[in-house]
Amino acid sequence: MRFEMMLALRHLTSNKGQTALTVGAVAVGVVAILFIRSIIAGVQAQIVDDLIGSLPAIVVKPVEKTTTRLADTDTRDAVRVASTADMVATRDQKRQQQREEIEGFEKVEAQLKSFAGVRAVASVAQGGATLRRGAKRFNVSLTGGDPEALDRIVGLSRNLIAGRWVGIAPDEIVIGWRLADESGVRLGERVRLEGANSTLSGSYRVAGIFRTGTEGGDLGLIYCTRRTGQSLLALGPNVSRIMVQINDPFDADKVAARISGSLPFKTDNWLVTNSTELQGIQGMNGSRDMISLFALLASAFAIASVLIVSVVQKSKQIGILKSMGATDGQILRVFTIEAALIGLSGSLLGAGIALTLLLSLAQIPAPPGPTPFPKHGTLFPLELNGWIFTGACSAATFATMLAAVLPARRAAKLNPVEAIRG
Predict the structure, then answer these.
(1) Are the CB atoms for 218 and 177 separated by under 8 Å?
(2) How far apart are CA 199 and CA 290, in angstroms?
(3) What is the pLDDT of residue 376?
(4) Which of 31, 81, 280, 363 is most buried, by CB atoms within 10 Å?
(5) Which phi and psi angles does 124 have, rounded to 5°?
C-alpha cells in the first residue's frame, strides 16, 4: 500500500493547479450542502419552537358523555317514582358532564408519567374568562396549573419579558404583552377576572408579562395557579385538561395513540392540529435533499472528468508501470487513493469554509419587526449540528471515491504495450 500511496501523492503534486481545482469543486459542493441543511434545519427548529414551544405536544381530555333520556312509558306511575332529589342529581350530573372534568388527576398524572417518551405532565384548569380593566373587556383563555410543572410544558419562564411566573401567589396572574398593551395594565397593577359566570370573579395582580410570538397567545392567554383556575372556572378539586410534553415532538401521534388506547381519555396532539405547517416542513425536507443530491452529483462528475483526463495524460506512465510488474489491482488502488485524498481534502476545506460563514451569519441581528419584543434575535436561524457536518463530509468523500471507479478501472485495464506506443 505504501507504493500506491506514494504514487498517488506524486500524481496529485505533479499537477497542482488541476488538483486545486478538483479539491475546490468538492469544497464548493460541501459548502452548498452544509449551508442548505444548516439553514433549513434552523428554520424547521424555529417553526417547531413557535408551534409547540409554548404549547403541549399532547392534551389529554375527558371523553364526552351523552346523557341518557328516560325511556318513554305509557304508565304515569313510572314518572311519579322519580323524586325531586333524583332530578336534582341528574341535573348536577349533566352540568358536570358539560364541564368535562377529570377527577382524581393526581392518579392520572402518575399513569401518564409511566408512558415511554413522556418528559413532563401538568394538570390544568382551562376555560374561557373575561378580563376587565376599567371600561375595557377582553375575552381570554385562562389556564391554571402548578407553575413549575406547567413551565416544563409551555416554557413560560423563557418567554417572560417582565416579572416572574414560577412562584406566583394565588392572587397573581401572568398575561401576554399585547393584552397588557391594549388593556393599559402595567406590571404590578391589578385587573379583574370573571370566570365561568359573573359571580365567579376576583381582583388579581399582574406578576409577569410574556411574549409567545403569536397574536392569539400574546392577546388571549392568561396563566395563573391551579387553585385560582379551579375557583374561577367552578371546577372544584378537578381539572379540565392534562398537558403532556414528550422527548421527541414528532412522536406525538404515537404516544397519544398509546395513551388513548390504555386510559379512558381522548387526546389531541400538535401533529394533527398543525398539519398544514407540517406539510410545509416536509416540503422543505424534500427541497433540502434534492439540492444536496445535485451538489453531490456536481462534485462527483467533476472528479470523474478530472480523473478520466488524468488517465489519458498518464497512460504512458501507467504502461511503463505495468510493464515493470505493477498489477491491475495496484493501478486501481492508486486512482482510488487519489480520489479519496481529493474527497477528504475538499470535504475538510468545505467544512471549514462553511463553518466560518455560518458563524458569521449567526451574528447578524434580525431587523426591527412590527412588535417591540422580537422572539428571535438573529436574521438567519441556523442549526450547527456536528452530525450534519460529519454526514456532509462523509457523503462528499464517498461520492468522490464512487466517481473514481470508472476511470480507475479504465486505467487498470490499459494494455502496457499500446499505452507506451501512445
Answers:
(1) yes
(2) 61
(3) 56
(4) 31
(5) -135, 150
Among 13, 12, 28, smallest CA distance to 302 is for 28
Surface-to-core class of residue 259, CB atoms within 10 Å of its CB (0-12 exposed, 13-18 middle, 19+ buried): buried
212 and 177 in contact (C-beta within 8 Å)?
A: no
Place of cell 496529485: 12
**217 alpha carbon, distance to own chain's centre:** 19
Residue ranges of domains in the chain? 2-52+277-421, 64-263
201-205-210 Cα angle (round to 5): 110
DSSP 402: H
User: Three-state DSSP class for 180?
Assistant: helix
Rounded-to-integer distance, Cα 229 and Cα 215, Å: 23
Question: Exposure pattern of 304-329 as b/e (b: 16+ CB <10 Å)?
Answer: bebbbebbeebbeebbebbeeebeee
* Residue 105: its H or E element: helix 105-113
Hunting for cell 493547479 — which residue is that?
A: 17
CB-side neighbour CA atoms (13 Å) of 184: 6
Residue at grid coordinates 365561568:
196
258 — pLDDT class (breaks 50, 70, 90): very high
For the segment 305-339, what is each residue's pLDDT rounded down to a tens digit? 877 777 777 777 778 888 888 888 888 888 888 88
The β-bridge relationship of strands 265-269 and 58-62 is: antiparallel
Q: By mean pLDDT, which of 90-99, 151-160, 381-390 is the weakest?
A: 90-99
Residue 354 CA to residue 32 CA, distance in Å, equals 8
Question: At residue 229, does pLDDT exceed 90?
Answer: yes
pLDDT, one tens digit per residue, over 110-143 is 999 999 999 999 999 999 999 999 889 999 999 9
CB 52 within 8 A of CB 271: no
Residues 6+ apart with CB under 8 A from 227: 144, 170
Q: How far apart are CA 160 and CA 181, in angstroms?
A: 15
* Strand 118-133, strand 190-194: pairing: antiparallel
Q: What are the grid coordinates assigned to 266, written together?
A: 381522548
Q: Please give the helix or strand (H or E) that residue 347 lies within, else none.
A: helix 328-361
Task: Please report, as a single letter, which amino acid is at residue 298.
Answer: A
Sheet strands (E) in 184-303:
190-194, 201-210, 221-224, 241-246, 265-269
